[in-house]
Design goal:
alpha+beta; 7 helices; elongated; about 25% strand
Length: about 425
Amino acid sequence: FFFSSRRRHTRSSLVSWARRCVQETGVHGIPAPSNVLTWQTADCFDFSILLCSLLIGNGYDAFVVYGKAPREITTRDESMLPCPVIELPKQPEDDQEEIKPLEKESNNTIPLEELKMKPEEPKASSFEEGLRKKMEEEQKTRERIEREITDDEPEYEKADPQKDKRFHCWVLIKRGKRDIKENFFIEATTGRKYAIKDSPYTTIDCIFNHRNFWINMQPALPIEKVGIDEFDIKEDSEKEWEYVMIPSVHKKLRELPDNSGDVEIIEEDETRDDILDMPTPWSPKLYLKKDSPEDLYYSAQKTIFFLKSKLDIFAPYSQKEDGLVARVTIYRDYKRQIIQEIRSMFDHRADKLILRIRYPYEFKTIEEYAPGKKVGAEEESHLKRLVEIDGRLRQLYYYPHRNKDGLIYREEQIYRKT
């Protein structure tokens, strides 16, 4: 378990990177983590060992866990889970308040239009009017039935014949290092974080990392009843865990005679034939290649299906025309046939566009811009948000540091004077 990098990475960045750059495959063996980075294909064991190596190299107390899990975990099926990137970051309250145009001051004068006599409305038959309304309601009902999906419900899944028999591998991070307050699991294939008591996994068979290999002596116990804090300590009162590797060199601390409080390490070598040493790591140091963006994603893009949503991820600079890095499509139904909303996220654009939200059935588009949008060689538009309804309305919000005319809001109504 080696890792080399110029800077320390956080847990979330390592999990996200490992999830993006490696594609999941079936179990065919356990290769070295460096080979996994080169092949960019892995199973749950390769995923977990690679992620654990990266976490240990960045100072986390990480372990690889081997046990049993349900079908949706082993098959990486997230179709019934919410998309983790649907919720947008909340903006400050000042930014959320819409700026309304100033209303004209009212006076007591009566406009001439109100003084004119209104023409008498033509008389119509009440029977014909009722018949016309009835036909319109029937037409609307037919259109609504054609547009709606009446069988909108999740697909029925048969009972799993391999229930409680599916082996899986994931990662455990213990509290203590890097300001971690609680123990938790990480599903290496999806990057989701689970609390110990609320995890979807069923049982634990063994836990290991670069220091030792621990076997659960009671594998039938549910995970919430397993002593996670006791497997890597020697004083296991309930004998739930049994370690396999015994170090051949025992280290003891001895105080120095100068009363300085310092200690020195004394190594006592015990030559025993029945000691099973922990093998040295066979993998070379792991390097994250940041210089080639296309290597950060398998095939430069990835598509994941969630509950009533779909997430498309693209490698940076792979979409050279518009700088698209992610797109979230939100549907109204479980079968993902009626699109409700499309969110496109951008990066490295000259016009500073970072987000575009489209509502297809409302013909509405919302665009968000970062500060400093360039419109010329030396000019900046300071455009912050653009709300447009095709053929009806266009609202433009500007950043408050616009220093030319102080304009912060502009509304354009199509076919009307601005």
